Amino acid sequence: MDKSGLVSSVSWKVLAVIVAALVITGLIIPDTYHTLHELWTKNNETYSHGYILLGFAIYVLVTDFRWQQFSPSFLYAPLALGAGLVWLAAEAVQVMLIQTLVLPGVLWCLLASMVGFKNSLKTLVPVLSLYLALPIMDILVVPLQNLTTWVNTRLIQAVGITAYIETYNIHMPYGIMRIAHGCAGLNYLLAGMCLGIFYAYLNLQRLSLQIRAVVVILLLSLVGNWIRVFALIMIGYESKMQSELVYDHGFFGWVIFAVLAVFFFFYAKRLEAKDGEFESTGREPSLPLSPKMIAAIGTTLAAFWAVPASWQMLNSQVSANTVQITLPESLQMLNKTSLPLSRVGANYEGNDASAVYSGRVEGYRLNVLVAAYRTQKQGKELIYYANKPANQLSQRTTIKVGEKSLNAATPAATQRVFWLYKVGNSVTLTDMQTKLAQLTHILDTPVVSVVALQVNCQRQCPDNTSLMQTLQPQLEALVTVEVQ
């Protein structure tokens, strides 16, 4: 790299383009950015290195002149449009993980539109490294947790302390320590991977040496976490669980990581000596500002921007409409109440409209519940882990009433609950069916809702077959409840 100073070693044109892209994209998909912000600002959590990684990736892109030879191309606008459509599909079914996974791809499309395909390949390392700050890496938590437990079980047996190990729990005479998800060491592994990848990219040329550098820092990160967990077990044992480190040990792990990182740098310097002189990246980039280059960048950004912008405009128009609920004749003997859903044990967070209808039929107290969503976003969605048609659902199953299928469950011995979901006029039963139905109705943005019937018995309720025979008209009518 150019050693003449920070100002002369930075491509300010590239920096301006990247910053503009981040700002413009953030303005059009603020919820996705907000999710990343929350993820990256949780101190001592798995992805707390997110902002540091983003800053370093940008630094590498603007100071590495090897790829900065402008060759504007409009070929990447369709890819950016495709990324926008993937984002839209993920938004429609409220899968925030996929929405965040799109972002590095959009950045690469933008860079490729500036310099062409061949030169853009040289940006893949810093761009792909951003995935190390996205929650897709959570798939490694359980394997790492199992590995940490196995290693520490062997260490405990080796030193001979009194402990009984049950799954992830370590029972000691003075208390129980648990090797939880946070003890898996994923945060240290990701930090080490980032360190190794960027060091190898910036300082080594031979692929074998680059791989060796990354492997060494990964092993040191794993070993450092094992040392951390074992040290905490020993501290808890020796202090009779009185040490503050037993309960607050986030910083302790980073101290161990930093010490091992020093050994990595000494080893990496030896690899540099084997590698020979590194290829200079200090030559001036060829970055002429031309109308074609500006148009290529603008077109690529606009191609991605167009889809979320259209979606936001459509949602703003839809959200102004009111939701109307109409019961069929078989349920019109029930009276609409002023009760909130929570009073009858149901919960549907952030709904745009809800209603509870109550009355007696054939000696049973019936409650018909409807919760509808005109628009959805994270935490304000029909299919959500906290949403339920009654408290403490158990014995969930699917039943057939005439030609209609319903979900059924037993919240208590004196209650049964039957429910279904509606996406516009489409009826679904499972979470997956409902998500897919939302995806197929993405353009007409219908109301999505849940329609449930709670049957309250004076004593223990009869089985579902008996209830279906007695309340067949009311159960079949659930499908024909209109929510518009």
UniProtKB/TrEMBL annotation:
<keyword id="KW-0378">Hydrolase</keyword>
<keyword id="KW-0645">Protease</keyword>
<feature type="transmembrane region" description="Helical">
    <location>
        <begin position="74"/>
        <end position="90"/>
    </location>
</feature>
<keyword id="KW-0472">Membrane</keyword>
<keyword id="KW-1003">Cell membrane</keyword>
<keyword id="KW-0812">Transmembrane</keyword>
<dbReference type="Pfam" id="PF09721">
    <property type="entry name" value="Exosortase_EpsH"/>
</dbReference>
<keyword id="KW-1133">Transmembrane helix</keyword>
<feature type="transmembrane region" description="Helical">
    <location>
        <begin position="49"/>
        <end position="67"/>
    </location>
</feature>
<dbReference type="GO" id="GO:0005886">
    <property type="term" value="C:plasma membrane"/>
</dbReference>
<dbReference type="GO" id="GO:0008233">
    <property type="term" value="F:peptidase activity"/>
</dbReference>
<feature type="transmembrane region" description="Helical">
    <location>
        <begin position="179"/>
        <end position="202"/>
    </location>
</feature>
<protein>
    <submittedName>
        <fullName>Exosortase</fullName>
        <ecNumber>3.4.22.-</ecNumber>
    </submittedName>
</protein>
<feature type="transmembrane region" description="Helical">
    <location>
        <begin position="214"/>
        <end position="237"/>
    </location>
</feature>
<dbReference type="InterPro" id="IPR026392">
    <property type="entry name" value="Exo/Archaeosortase_dom"/>
</dbReference>
<feature type="transmembrane region" description="Helical">
    <location>
        <begin position="249"/>
        <end position="268"/>
    </location>
</feature>
<feature type="transmembrane region" description="Helical">
    <location>
        <begin position="12"/>
        <end position="29"/>
    </location>
</feature>
<dbReference type="InterPro" id="IPR019127">
    <property type="entry name" value="Exosortase"/>
</dbReference>
<feature type="transmembrane region" description="Helical">
    <location>
        <begin position="96"/>
        <end position="117"/>
    </location>
</feature>
<dbReference type="GO" id="GO:0006508">
    <property type="term" value="P:proteolysis"/>
</dbReference>
<feature type="transmembrane region" description="Helical">
    <location>
        <begin position="124"/>
        <end position="144"/>
    </location>
</feature>
<dbReference type="InterPro" id="IPR013426">
    <property type="entry name" value="EpsH-like"/>
</dbReference>
